[in-house]
């Protein structure tokens, strides 16, 4: 099955810097290398480096200090206690009996997926793509799970039958792992021709793309889930409790 196309280089730069912060190579309170130094180190354009730094700032890893550069804040401690319904559905929806398994198997990791999993580009991953129909609680979604092939031992992600538990539940139970948090990257875009076919969408329909990175207590990626959700004509709506 096809793997997602390579993403811009900023993702791999951001992943490398995030790993250095998480590991303590860049301690809290330290200044990051200058933009010029990062441009030379990663052989990238200044705009690419700036984009990767802005991504880390939005996650809460760094903050700009006028006239000095960017200071390390450390791994963000404040996380939302309850993820939105779309994230819970993406991680915990049961395949059997209503989902359709589009494909499952081994493939080389694209640059985008490799960066999210902190593995080398082209390292084997297990990719499992499913289509979930709309229910009373959830929108229809195209959901693709990625995990390193070396970490898939004992799981059934590569098998062609439907699972009777959610992707994250299956990974935690089979590998005896504990997921600590999930980082979501959202974007709104036009559906590809393949997505339009699988989701039965009209020409140039809009979709909400959600990339989820599930991490353990050390901040190491366990699982990546790529979710595509059709945007209904009335727009997206979710309800959240304030108290």
Number of strand segments: 8
Total domain count: 2
Quaternary organization: single chain
> Class of the largest domain, according to the CATH hierarchy?
Alpha Beta
**Low-confidence blocks of residues:** 1-7
- Tell me, briefly, the overall form: globular
CATH superfamily of the largest domain: Chorismate lyase-like
Structural class: alpha+beta
Query: What gyration radius follows from the Cα positions, in whole Å?
Result: 19 Å
Order of helices and strands: HHHEEHEHEEHEHEE
What can you tell me about this protein's structure?
This protein has 243 residues and is α+β, with helices and mostly antiparallel strands. The chain has two domains: 10-72, Orthogonal Bundle (Arc Repressor Mutant, subunit A); 85-230, 3-Layer(aba) Sandwich (Chorismate lyase). The protein has helices at 10-23, 35-42, 46-59, 85-92, 111-117, 167-175, 193-199, and strands spanning 62-65, 69-72, 100-108, 124-132, 141-148, 181-190, 206-215, 221-230. The strands form two sheets. The protein has a six-stranded antiparallel beta sheet with strand order 3-4-5-8-7-6, with helices on both faces. A two-stranded antiparallel ribbon has the order 1-2. A hairpin with an 8-residue loop joins strand 4 (124-132) and strand 5. Residues 1-7 have low confidence and may be disordered.
